[in-house]
Amino acid sequence: MKLYKLAFALFLGLGALTSCNDKLDLTNPNQQTSGTFGYTADELEESVIACYNHIRMEGTYARVGFNIDVMRGDEAWNASQVWYLPFDDLNEPITDEIGQWSWRDWYYTINVCNFVLSRANGDGLTDRMKRIRGQALFIRGLAYYNLAGYYQNPALITDYNQYSTLDGLYASNKEEGDEDAFAQYDRVLDQVEQDFAEAMTLLPTRDAGGEWAKGRATSGAAAGYYARTLMQRHKYSEALTVLKAIINGQYGTYKLMANYGDNFREGPAYENNDESLFEIQFLDYGSQGTDDEWTPVNTSANATQGHAIESNYGPGDCGGWADISASPWLYNLFKAERTTNGSLDPRLYWTIGTYEPEWEGFEYGNVCYTQSMGLGDFVVTNNNYGGLPIAKNTNLRTGLYDKVITGLHCGINLRMMRYSDVLLRAAECENEVNGPTQQAIDWINQVRTRAGLANLKLADFNSKDKLFEQIANVERPKEFGCEFGRGFDLLRWGFFYSSDRLQQLKEHGAFNFWTKANYEAGNYTYTPKDPVVYGSCSKSSYDSYVPGHEYLPIYQGTLNDNPNLTGNSANNNTDNSAYFSKKGWTVHPVVNL
Predict the structure, then answer these.
(1) Average pLDDT over all residues of the chain
(2) What is the spatial distance between Cα 74 and Cα 591, in angstroms, rounded to a whole number?
């Protein structure tokens, strides 16, 4: 004991002597830098959380970054004729800063991912570090998947050391010899494929991940997005192999929820369910903070941590911003086919907020934010222009509250990839590679059976083109109507590069203005539910389309700030159909079903 006390006293003495000459060096935990932080798994776990947080921002999935793709599709239109209008009309000007918000927020995300990957690398990674690296790879792949799908030729930055000088921030999106913007597009998607493919090997399945996997990227999520990326490039055979592996349980156990509506409600009983491969996490109603955190630089300990999709979709009379409506084409597509018991497709209930006699006694009944709707009632999205309210990813049908809580307050997790997408994509790939086949029909019928619809029969599809038409313009719109992804579908299908397909988009996107005042005065000859005849309609979103504007232009301010960036097809009004042809890809002709 004496020796111990002596040694301890000597230690203190030495400490006192050295303290006279050297300043005490302590690291402030609230002022860490990239040079002092991120060298332990615990610290990198915090960085991974930051990666997830950035995909919940305004430009990623909390509002604008989500809705731009919805607007690009033919299932929705701009009911306010103000906010999102350039995206709906596919004529976003290069001077509109809103068009840059997705660029800004996805690069914030990439920056954090690159930091994590600079630390979690090398051989001999522990299982924990593999999970950390896999998540960062998945989220970076997700970021570049979105950037390429929106901006065509984004700059590719994968090395965190590139940020060590200001010059590294001014990355180029063009290399010597590039003929067009698609040279960079292909480089970016090469990297996306690489990131997702590696993430598939590092991440656990949802089964193995257990509670950890709820809300996190898993090998199943990485596999699903890897297949999506392959399909964007018409690598259907490779994508089919991956999709079959998901279906066979190689990346975890997935199945369709018995109730379609369970994919669009909040709460632990519904979110991160058996159908979800990946979803964006938002805090449930009643557990949120008060501060709307719109951008990555708005940091608040009391952030709401919800999304504003509901605010954009919500009818004006229910407190919403009344910006986006479901297309009459989508509504009438639902009404064209009854279930085997003669009722309406239940997916209509959760997609579009209309009164239907069939909804009496179904789920929450004929409600719009707990307000009862009666026969003949029309709750329009926008009082000045009309529109069919979008119910999906809102609480219009859930009975949770009686009006929209505007801002970043909706707590419904956004299911970005569901097992039904795996099945319908597998059917599409099977049809492209071998079709039409019974296997493709069987996968489609799994989704139809959940909705109560009769099975399709192979004998009714005598060509690959006809089955494609069924998948593209019947099955997918009804299953995923007004969800994120239709715009990406139109890109990979090449619908902008064929005159008959472009005409079809114009017909799908047609709508008539229908004001609340005219309705209340009884001064109208049609309703928002009626089919719209293109040519005599008020407007179609695609009438103003100019070749090249299926993508967003790179914001002029960004081009001014970075002299190494060049514009894309939207900046230059360049027709992209040549790229499609050069790749040997074909656009399926329109087929009457």
Answers:
(1) 93
(2) 18
Question: What stretches in the chain show pLDDT beneath 50?
Answer: 1-21
What pLDDT score was predicted for residue 27? 62
- How far apart CA 471 and CA 167 sit, in angstroms, is 47
- Dist. CA 157–CA 187, nearest whole Å: 11
Q: Beta 76-78 vs 324-326: how paired, if at all?
A: antiparallel
> In the prediction, which pLDDT does 165 show?
75
- The backbone torsions φ and ψ at residue 291, rounded to the nearest 5 degrees and listed phi first, read -95, 120
Residue 466 identity (one-letter amino acid): K
Q: Give backbone dihedrals phi and psi of 299, rounded to 5 degrees, phi first.
A: -115, 125
The packing angle between helices 486-493 and 64-72, to 10°, is 50
- Kindly write down the DSSP assignment for every residue of 376-435, as one continuous string: T----SBTTTB-EEB-TTSSTTT-S-SS---SS-B---EEEEEHHHHHHHHHHHHHHHH-
Asked if residue 235 lies in contact with residue 492, where contact means CB atoms within 8 angstroms, the answer is no
Contact 170, 216 (CB under 8 A): no
- For position 10, what pLDDT does the model report? 30
- For the CA atoms of 434, 423, 467, 432, what is the dihedral angle to 10 degrees? -30
Cα–Cα nearest to 156, from 184, 179, 125, 182:
184
* Contact call for residues 381 and 316 (beta carbons, < 8 A): yes
- Displacement of CA 50 from its chain's centroid (Å): 19
Residue 20 confidence (pLDDT): 45
Report pTM: 0.94
pLDDT of residue 18: 39
Q: Closest Cα partner for 266 from 299, 218, 307?
A: 307
Residue 455, pLDDT score: 98
Which residues on neighbouring strands pair with residue 255, listed in sequence order? Answer: none
